[in-house]
Amino acid sequence: MGGSAGRPRVGLFVTCLVDLFRPSVGFAAVKLLRDAGCDVDVPVGQTCCGQPAYNSGDKATAEDLARQTIAALEGYDYVVAPSGSCAGMLKVHYPVLLADDPAWKARAAAFSAKVHELISFLVDVRGLDKVDARLDARATYHDSCSGLRELGVREQPRQLLRTVKGLELVEMGDAEVCCGFGGTFSVKYPDISNAIVERKAERIAATGAGMLLAGDLGCLMNMAGKLSRQGRKIAVRHVAEVLAGELSDPAICERP
Amino acid sequence: MRSTSPAFKANARAALADAQLQRALSEVAPGLAARRSAARAGLPEFEALRERGRAIKDHTLAHLDLYLEEFERKATEAGSRVHFAPTAEDARQIIAAICREAGARIVTKGKSMISEEVGLNAHLEGAGLEVVETDLGEYLIQIRGETPSHIIAPAIHLTQDQVEADFRRLHKGLRKDRVLIEPTQLVAEARQILRDKFLSADVGITGANFLIAETGSSVIVTNEGNGDLTQSLPRVHIVLASIEKMVPTLEDADTLIRLLARSATGQEISTYTTFSTGPRRAGDPDGPEACHVVILDNGRSELLGTAFREVLRCIRCGACMNHCPVYTAIGGHAYGWVYPGPIGSVLTPALIGVHSAAHLPNASTFCGRCEEVCPMKIPLPGLMRHWREEEFSAGDTPLLYRLGLKAWASIARRPRVYHALVRTLMPVLGALGRRTGAFRHLPLARGWTKHRDLAAPQGRTFQALWADHKAGVPR
Question: Model ipTM?
Answer without folding.
Answer: 0.97
